[in-house]
Amino acid sequence: MERSFFFHGGYLNAVDAKGRVSLPAPFRKVIEKRAKLSFPGGDDEDKSLKIGDFAKKGCLRAFDQTYSAKLYASIRDSVAKRGLDPIEELDAIGDMTQATFGGSPDVPYDAAGRMVLPPPLRDAAGIADLAWFVGNADTIQIWNPDRFRANCADQADLLRQLDYALGERAK
């Protein structure tokens, strides 16, 4: 059986005026475990997330190098099933990878998880002084807390966690 590690839970972190925010420690641990399984002997210094605008939801979507590799393999396999000639296949793979990865820059984070969310991404998700990180199995969603509340009213457990985190921050 393949061993998998997933992102779970919700975490609220402050965002400063320059867009600096900390990736929650439980998510960093998952990334490290996944990297060790997927890239044995790999470079521990390559700490980054690919973060893009998840316009359909109104938040940001982030994923690590392990999920990037899965996505690319999935794209390749999907295109290969079409039975295209090699040039058409190459073009199709290029189009799909550009759409998937092109608008999602690599955002590095340090050993303490500190990273800078690029201004265009913060603007797209409406993230100002707080970021609500939500584990979504293989990916992480990064929300403006108010947007999360408006768009995810059916997620009572996460809303309770968010309310608790906001209450603790207000103390």
UniProtKB/TrEMBL annotation:
<dbReference type="GO" id="GO:0009295">
    <property type="term" value="C:nucleoid"/>
</dbReference>
<dbReference type="InterPro" id="IPR007159">
    <property type="entry name" value="SpoVT-AbrB_dom"/>
</dbReference>
<dbReference type="GO" id="GO:0003700">
    <property type="term" value="F:DNA-binding transcription factor activity"/>
</dbReference>
<keyword id="KW-0805">Transcription regulation</keyword>
<feature type="domain" description="SpoVT-AbrB">
    <location>
        <begin position="104"/>
        <end position="147"/>
    </location>
</feature>
<keyword id="KW-0804">Transcription</keyword>
<dbReference type="GO" id="GO:0005737">
    <property type="term" value="C:cytoplasm"/>
</dbReference>
<protein>
    <recommendedName>
        <fullName>Transcriptional regulator MraZ</fullName>
    </recommendedName>
</protein>
<comment type="subunit">
    <text>Forms oligomers.</text>
</comment>
<dbReference type="InterPro" id="IPR035642">
    <property type="entry name" value="MraZ_N"/>
</dbReference>
<dbReference type="InterPro" id="IPR003444">
    <property type="entry name" value="MraZ"/>
</dbReference>
<dbReference type="GO" id="GO:0000976">
    <property type="term" value="F:transcription cis-regulatory region binding"/>
</dbReference>
<feature type="domain" description="SpoVT-AbrB">
    <location>
        <begin position="10"/>
        <end position="56"/>
    </location>
</feature>
<dbReference type="InterPro" id="IPR038619">
    <property type="entry name" value="MraZ_sf"/>
</dbReference>
<dbReference type="InterPro" id="IPR037914">
    <property type="entry name" value="SpoVT-AbrB_sf"/>
</dbReference>
<dbReference type="Pfam" id="PF02381">
    <property type="entry name" value="MraZ"/>
</dbReference>
<keyword id="KW-0963">Cytoplasm</keyword>
<keyword id="KW-0238">DNA-binding</keyword>
<dbReference type="InterPro" id="IPR020603">
    <property type="entry name" value="MraZ_dom"/>
</dbReference>
<keyword id="KW-0677">Repeat</keyword>
<dbReference type="GO" id="GO:2000143">
    <property type="term" value="P:negative regulation of DNA-templated transcription initiation"/>
</dbReference>
<dbReference type="InterPro" id="IPR035644">
    <property type="entry name" value="MraZ_C"/>
</dbReference>
<comment type="similarity">
    <text>Belongs to the MraZ family.</text>
</comment>
